[in-house]
Amino acid sequence: MTDAISNKFSNNPVITSEKNPTVKLAKALLTQSRQRKKAGQTVLEGVHLIEAALQAKHLPQQIIISYSGLSHPEVQALLASLSEQNLDNQLTVVSDSVYQGITTLGNGVEIMAIVDVPEHNLHTLKAPITTDCLILNDVQDNGNVGTLLRTAAAVGIKNIICTKGSAQAWSPKTMRAGMGAQFGLTIYEGIEADEVLSYLRLPIYATSSHTDNIIYKQNLNRPVAWVMGHEGQGVCEDIMKQATPVALPQPNGQESLNVAIAGALCMYETLRQRDYS
Fold it and tell me: What is the DSSP letter of 103?
């Protein structure tokens, strides 16, 4: 460990009890969706997600690190960055055993941060959304939601609407799958499916296995909203009846594609038509 980091943090009191309030809060946020909603906070595990938050100017409320983690080079660099932003007082050093008792990861760099979840309220918008949008209609798997958010960020789609049945966009599992893409997006969660389209002034396209309307025949050279539906049931009727159903060709006759794969194909076809035709 560098002398500067060593002198600054290695002599911090080391928490050895899981009853410490910061430790208890982190454990609850990592494991309980209800607690995340109540507190309006989530946990970022690992250097990459914390760096993504800092890059987006989204500063942690608390940082928890294992004592042995202090010696990791990536952690030292991150701690130096935190010091520059006067976040030293938010740092809690815990024993290795306490850290292992709360982390949801296996082997890795032992640092996590508690952050506030950004609040975006669709009901308070002064005008309907008229730029590209991704709608997640009851997509329940955290990995699928995170992958879709990461893809949306990659192609430049900023607005995300999640209906009530979708996995939490800011849960630790979804954050890991999204690799911190959430910090570059405007995410509206908990929206009733039958209300979603009233907030849009866009052509709506929904993936469906019950149409011959192939994606490559669509004109996507204008702002659109893509709808990705439940992994088993697809897009709900309330949304589908107001959307244009679109099919992804499957010449070998598979029943359906994984929703994250389907979403990526749709979003990248949109990008191709506009910028890479």
Answer: -
Do residues 135 and 227 make contact, with C-beta atoms less than 8 angstroms apart? yes
- The CATH fold assigned to 122-275 is Alpha/beta knot (3.40.1280)
Q: Is the dihedral of CA 56, 160, 156, 131 positive or negative?
A: negative
Per-residue model confidence as pLDDT tens digits over 188-245 = 999 999 999 999 999 999 998 888 899 999 999 999 999 999 999 999 999 999 999 9
Query: What residue type is 214 in one-letter code?
Result: I
Q: Between 3.40.47.10, 3.30.420.40, 2.40.30.170, 3.30.1330.30, what CATH number should domain 3-116 receive?
A: 3.30.1330.30
What's the angle, vertex CA 195, arms to CA 116 and CA 120, rounded to 5? 20
The set of residues, in sequence order, having a beta carbon less than 8 Å from that of 85 and lying 6+ positions away, is 54, 59
Strand pairing category for 41-45 and 111-116? antiparallel
